[in-house]
Amino acid sequence: MASAALAAAAPRRRATPLLRRVRRSPPLVVGLVLFGALLLMAAFAPLIAPADPIAIQVSERLQPPSAAHLFGTDDFGRDLFSRVVWGSRLAVRLGTLSVLVAATGGVALGLVAGYYRGWVDNLISRLLEVVLAFPGELFAIAIIAVLGPSLDNLIVALGLFGWPGYARLVRGSVLSAGQREYVEAARAIGARASRVMLRHILPNVVAPVIILSATRFGGALLAGSGLSFIGLGVPIPQPEWGAIMATGRDYIGSAWWIVVFPGVLIATAVLGVNLVGDGLRDVLDPRLGD
């Protein structure tokens, strides 16, 4: 019985330092609250939204915020609150998948470059420099211009210009981890390169990749909204926040709510994920630990 009680208490003791660092990081707590609210809005959009986000009601066009329409209506009479709520789903999908695409490609190339070095490292480094030579948004615009505006193409575009940051981060971490004794020992006993990279090196780069992903999520939201605003992202009438703002730019003087409410949601979501990124850096970076 005593051994069972000790075994049950051990996980709690191990978690205490991490939880203590979380509690001592107000930015992380605030960021988690804001980001959690975004996730809940996206998850329960069908229950929260009172109306069809793309249903047109011309008789209700440009109605100001009221009890019937909390955020007012747009130029086609669509309920803006419903559109903003459903837009959170597109925002979460865009941020998650574009970061996943960028992280997968960048981590893989960074691992290979840092582990094999030599001509492999030089080749990947030159490719990375070529991609970084172009502004990220311009690169994304070029891809969307070829593939056409859609949510899936926007995810691909943002993912393709986002991988160099991961590759540089992981390459540096691999070069550092590759000099450690346990990695040298694994090589000495004849472990395969894939096993060394995945079993011994990759766990050491997980924390910085998570931190970078949190900040890149916010960047993807901003870039996606900006591209949708100029007509190169998610096409209308889909309830994407940037596209909603684009429909209201001609009515900013008389129907300010079409621009303001989606803008506030974008700012809040980006602030939340950036605070999460800053907080995770304080919590997960061993150099800043207890």
Written description of the protein model:
By secondary structure, this protein is an all-alpha fold. The chain has one domain: Orthogonal Bundle (MetI-like fold), CATH 1.10.3720. The protein contains twelve helices and no strands. Helix 2 crosses helix 12, helix 7 runs antiparallel to helix 10 and helix 11 packs antiparallel against helix 12. The chain is elongated, with a radius of gyration of 23 Å.
Inertia-based shape? elongated
| Alpha carbon gyration radius | 23 Å
N→C terminal distance:
33 Å
Report the structural category.
Answer: mainly alpha
Average per-residue pLDDT, rounded, comes to 83
CATH homologous superfamily classification: MetI-like
The proportion of strand residues reads under 5%
Largest sheet: none
Give the helices and strands as they follow along the chain: HHHHHHHHHHHH
Tell me the count of domains: 1
The CATH first-level class comes to: Mainly Alpha
User: What CATH architecture do you see?
Assistant: Orthogonal Bundle
In terms of per-residue confidence, which ranges show pLDDT below 50 for 5 or more consecutive residues? 4-12
Q: In DSSP terms, counting alpha (H) and pi (I) runs of 4 or more, how many helices? A: 12
